[in-house]
Structure formats: structure tokens, C-alpha cells
Amino acid sequence: MTPKEQLLQYRQSIDNLDAALVHILAERFRCTKAVGHLKAEHDLPPADPAREEQQISRLRDLAKSADLDPDFAETFLNFIIKEVIRHHEQIAAQHGGQEK
Q: Is the model's pTM score more than 0.70?
């Protein structure tokens, strides 16, 4: 296999993985949206710091076992958590509930 062919093969795999990540993130946000509605209906706070810390710790451990930089994994999860909380705050505001 030539280097050009090998590069093309790697890029095809990367493209497939990127597509899978988008679909996985979409499914995750569908689930967290449902959580946001449940929280709003029961006047629960949009954020759950204890759960977030637990998830960060769990993800760091998973990253280590997968040979992925745990700091990168934590940064990625924190970005997602921030976006989820923002969605939950919007849902709470639409329900006339608490925002923080």
C-alpha cells in the first residue's frame, strides 16, 4: 500500500468515527433534554454538581484505561456538561421554574 492509499484509508476511518461521534452526541443530548424536562416539571435544579464530579472522575478513569489523555477527556466532558446545564436552564425558564 502506498503512503497516499494508507492516508486515504486512515481518513475514511476518521470520517466514519466523526459521523459516529455526531450521532452519539445527538442521542446523548436527546436523553439530557428529557432529563431537563423532568427536572423542570419537578422544580429540580438544572445542575447537579455531585453527579458532575462523579461523571468526571468516572470518565477520567475510562480515559486512562483507553490510553486517552484524562485531561482531554475531562475538558471534553466539562464542555458537554456546560451545554447540558445551559439547555436545562432554558427548559426550566420555559416551564417558569428555577434557572440555577
A: yes
